[in-house]
Amino acid sequence: MGPGKWRWAVLGPIILIIAGIIVATTGPRDELGWAEKAFREALAPLQSGVTRIADGIVGVTTRIVRLTRLAKENEALRKEVEELRTERAALLEAQRENEELRRLVDLERRAPDQVQIAEVIYRTPGNWFSTIIINKGSAHNVEKGMAVVTPEGVVGHVRLVTRHTAEVMLITDTKSALGGRVYRTNQVVLVEGQGDAGRGKALVKPLASEADLVVGDYIITSGLSEIYPKGLPVGIVEAVYEGRYGLTTYGQLQPFVEFDRLEWVAVLTKPHARFGEEVYGGHP
Predict the structure, then answer these.
(1) pLDDT digits (tens, 9 = 90+) for 162-202
(2) CATH value at residue 171
(3) Which end of the chain has less Cβ packing within 10 Å, N or C?
């Protein structure tokens, strides 16, 4: 008998046995055969390991998908929050500007034909508390020397004029000197700007040798100049100092106008003598 015949002589019975096992286990039955039991017992550890690996892969894949989705959702939410913040800031700015304009229009209404509303269109970066440029000029009856105010009080006066613009010197400019009065005592004082070094503040210098100046004093325009009508609010004294040798007294003034936030102003084109008293009340 050749090698091929011996091979079939050995493999034939084995194939028959396996086929018999398959046939025996495919039909409906209540118990497993010994071979199937042994086969399942042998495969159990392998199946358990494969199942754990498969479950782990599925779990990792699920977490990756979930984290990717959460990352996209978080990014979308972050963008939405930023957009809402931007919209809120824009709305608040518009509300503030509208309120400012409303108060200027109200000032114009109380003094018809005496006020020209103008927008601040330029500020010199190096002289923030010195000058501003507004968008009204000689074509709008704005002239050199006219007073400029806001609903809060005095801003300054027109120094240069073109047809459609004007340069305004602020009362905080170092070259500015404004005649004022202490409302409490009616004493005459000089208000001098401190420029950028003073960060929008000014000095109050009483003209009398024995001045009665205290913290909280309310300073108004004196009406003794050709620029500012009497009774315009200027600011409040926030500190009082003694000069050299204690012979003089001077104060530091916090203007009512916030010069670092100026956007709209009113030029007094034809104010009457009692403009400050009638429009601002002439008192704190």
Answers:
(1) 999 999 999 999 999 999 999 999 999 999 999 887 788 99
(2) 2.40.10.340
(3) N
